[in-house]
Specification:
Blueprint lengths: L2 E2 L17 H22 L5 E7 L6 H9 L7 E5 L5 H4 L5 H4 L8 E5 L8 H5 L4 H20 L2 E9 L2 H13 L9 H7 L2 H14 L7 E5 L3 H18 L7
Parallel strand pairs: 2-4, 2-5, 3-4, 5-6
Antiparallel strand pairs: 1-6
Length: 248
């Protein structure tokens, strides 16, 4: 199951032996997708919104898990944002500026494939932010999310993690498949050389950015079917705990 990051987390010590059979996988995905669609319809009549943040190392299966999360939802009120390198205009502003116009309206649903947490993850590790900037980022992000939470936003924050060995196997499959060449580049290999630093940054993020209103959930993702089910389950349960299952 997804691990609550309020507990101390050592990413490379996660139990990655979690698997699920295809028949059970299909049944559980179908069940969670229907429950999620029902709550999406109810949410449209409320002042609530949902933000799902998905982080994790390269090749952790974030894209595939996100597709299963949104594929049965009403596309009119759900958006998926893939966060890439900021533009020159975005760099001229505070790093949170570029996310404001992507936030969901009340009654809507947004998924961020990487997010503002880049400030304390890749920007920290790669030196794109100064130490004073990324150290300040923890409090800035907590304040940002509190503001949205107090306005009715439901946060679901998931970190999909794989082992270094599994990442290498996935990188090699991508490199050998002409239909997946676009998924692998020199930056991915460079990030891999800083595996320990990226893990340390993520573990500090869990400690400092996991308040009860917006906790991180850690998902072992070596087995993709298991990770997809856990992601759907976590989103559904967090929305139910927020009261959407009973909303009229």
């Amino acid at each position: 199951m997804a691990k609550n990051a309020a507990e101390q987390v050592v990413l490379d010590a996660l139990d990655q032996a979690r698997a699920i059979e295809q028949e059970e996988y299909r049944a559980r995905v179908k069940d969670y997708q229907l429950r999620l669609l029902t709550m999406q319809r109810r949410m449209a009549e409320t002042n609530r919104s949902v933000i799902v943040v998905v982080e994790g190392p390269d090749a952790a299966g974030k894209g595939g898990a996100i597709r299963r999360l949104v594929e049965k939802l009403d596309p009119r009120t759900v958006r998926v944002w893939s966060t890439i390198k900021p533009t020159a205009e975005e760099l001229a502003h505070h790093y949170l500026w570029r996310f404001w116009h992507r936030l969901p309206a009340r009654g809507e649903f947004a998924v961020f494939d990487r997010s503002w947490y880049g400030r304390v993850l890749v920007e920290r590790v790669e030196g794109f932010a100064t130490e004073s900037e990324w150290q300040r980022g923890y409090d800035e992000i907590n304040a940002f999310e509190k503001l949205l939470h107090d306005d009715g936003t439901i946060f679901v924050k998931l970190y999909l993690h794989i082992t270094k060995e599994e990442q290498l196997a996935r990188f090699k499959r991508r490199a050998s498949d002409p239909y997946k060449h676009w998924k692998i580049n020199d930056e991915d290999w460079r990030n891999r050389r800083k595996w320990r630093q990226h893990n340390e940054a993520a573990e500090e993020m869990f400690r400092r950015n996991s308040p009860p209103r917006a906790p991180w959930r850690i998902v072992p993702a070596n087995f993709k079917w298991y990770a997809r089910v856990q992601m759907l389950k976590t989103v559904v349960q967090q929305m139910e705990r927020a009261g959407l299952a009973e909303a009229g």
